[in-house]
Amino acid sequence: MHGELRRYLVIRPPGSTVGHLPVIIDLHGSGSSAEEHAGVTAASSWAMAGAVVVLPQASIPFQLIDGRPEGFAWNVPGSPLPGESSARRGPDDVAFIDAIVSDLIDHHGADPTRLHLRGYSGGARLAAHVIAAATGRFASACFVAGVRFVEPHAGPLPRILAIHGLADTVNSFGGGTDTRWSESVPSAVRRWALAAGCPDASTTSNTDHVVDSTYVDALDNPAVRLLAVKGAEHSWPGTSDQDHIAAFGVATDFDASGAHFAFVRDVEADAASAVPNDRH
């Protein structure tokens, strides 16, 4: 891309092709890698369930925490990397993700109606810019531990799921004073809901593990949902990766990967019922 070699990892069911399967494009967090993120999120379980997971690799070498191996970070538009004072001019990672989507559709037969975007922490921040720039490109988007609002271009928004730990001290649920992370999670989610045309009110349920808030659109369809995970810090909720937990705190027993999988199944089921002949 622009003379630079970029890579992405693909995990898919044995013997399958990308066509006619849901495709989840999953963006790792700052200081991580595609391979590490695949392990943290148990990406292989998606392949066992009949989905394809595509994990792009960021290209900025970056060490988020002293003592951890150097990984990579995304260039989130307008946002400095942690520890830096100004945003970088490149690479254009929004264009990189768009190029991956085009490659999957044009050269690997991916169904353009079955594309789903997900990001964790810094990857979630980038995902917000991706869906804002490419409205109508994805069927759904999931932000884990990093939901931010970006004013979208005109066009239909995907269904949105945000998952965030109530005890997160890296990207605080209640927001903060840092310009990189000032808005609260509920405020960012609410603004996505308003952009999706939802009334300014959500329905909320409270379970042992999460506070579940859902905004519905004018047709009473669930459009934007927030799962606030009780006791969870910045770790991927439900992960069993002990190195990840040691770095980012309590993960709890709530299974973020499972919750996202159920969300994608619901999105695809609703799409199939709306256009019954669009699935083969």
From TrEMBL:
This is Poly(3-hydroxyalkanoate) depolymerase. It holds the Pfam family Esterase_PHB. It comes from the Bacteria. GO terms for cellular component: extracellular region. GO terms for molecular function: hydrolase activity. The keyword Hydrolase applies. Keywords: Hydrolase, Signal. It comes from Mycolicibacterium sediminis.
